[in-house]
Amino acid sequence: MDKNKENVIEVSNLYFSYTKTPFLKDINFSVSKGEIFGFLGPSGAGKSTLQKVLTGLCTNYQGTARILGMDSNKHGKEFYERIGVDFEFPSLFEKLTARENLDYFAGLYSGEKRNVDELLKEVGLFEHADKKVSSFSKGMKSRLNFIKSLVHNPQILFLDEPTSGLDPNNAKIMKDMIIKEREKGKTIIITTHNMQDATELCDRVVFIVDGQMKALDTPHNFIMKRGAARVTYSFMENGKEQLKTSILSEISKDELLQKLISENRIASIHSTEPTLSDIFMELTGAQLD
Q1: Cβ-count burial of 143 within 10 angstroms (0-12 exposed, 13-18 middle, 19+ buried)?
Q2: Measured between alpha carbons, how far is 100 from 252 in angstroms, rounded to an integer?
Q3: Which residues pair with 209 in a beta bridge?
Q4: What is the pLDDT of residues 20-75, one digit of tens each?
């Protein structure tokens, strides 16, 4: 993270509990303007609760949670003018059309609005703009709910499992839009247990298990620090296929591999590196859903 960038979210010594037992414990992090920051962990880890604290839905916390310079438990209407929230489960009026939903929610805000038709086109819903939402599929509702969070042009987006329930094509549309919003200078918080989404989208990620932060870094650094890329190759020996593996950075020292290459006896060869999911399990001991 660029230390010269402005922090728009600052959380320190944060504790929160639904009962007498702490649920979120000693949470500390900051997020800079224009950053995509991911909360990663299994269901029940505390990701969505942390997001609720930041968006002002859970206010009886201990510690500090400041968003755009405002304490999230002491905010007013201005706070919601500046953030957009896309919950995992769509909150739409089923008897209204897609356009009517967007117009209604846009009318709740006082600032400059985004063009509704352009937003509908971006997520492939323009031709369905005047259909009632009750006729929409789960994926269509998810895409509409996403652009609903953009209609008032917020500075910070909070996205909860943004690609959940989407087919690969529509998931790509969603991810491309998220990256475009970051390029416009928006700060984006993503809550997910989808490690592929986190790897593709996030500048930094924090692993959360049992309400605690276990690690925080960039996806690239996690992967590079925790496991070297390997090369696996196969060849025939005495009529049977044999498999061997070498560390990518040390293949020049693999005499067998060099011999097989010189004799043109390599049947197959490919490189692999650990995934973010592999690193998560190694660092936390927890398995993702």
Answers
A1: buried
A2: 64
A3: 212
A4: 888 999 999 999 999 999 999 888 889 989 999 999 999 999 999 999 999 998 88
CB 61 within 8 A of CB 53: yes
Q: What are the strands of the beta sheet with 230-237, ordered from one edge?
A: 240-247, 230-237, 266-272
DSSP 169-198: HHHHHHHHHHHHHHHTT-EEEEEES-HHHH
Q: Which residues of 54-74 are buried (b: 16+ CB within 10 A; e: fewer)?
A: bbbebeebeeebbbbeeebee
The amino acid occupying position 130 is D
Contact in structure between 90 and 145 (CB atoms under 8 Å)? yes
Between CA 220 and CA 228 the distance in angstroms is 12
pLDDT tens for residues 66-117? 999 999 988 888 899 999 999 877 889 999 999 999 999 999 999 889 999 9
User: What are the b/e assignments for 152-179, b being 16+ CB within 10 Å?
Assistant: bbbebbbbbbbbbebeeebbebbbebbe
Q: Which residues are CB-neighbours of 18 under 8 A, at least 6 positions away?
A: none
- For residue 130, list its beta bridge partners: none
Nearest to 143 by CA among 110, 112, 167, 115: 167
- Residues contacting residue 86 through CB under 8 Å, at least 6 positions apart: 145, 146, 148, 149, 157, 158, 159, 160, 162
Three-state secondary structure call for residue 94: coil
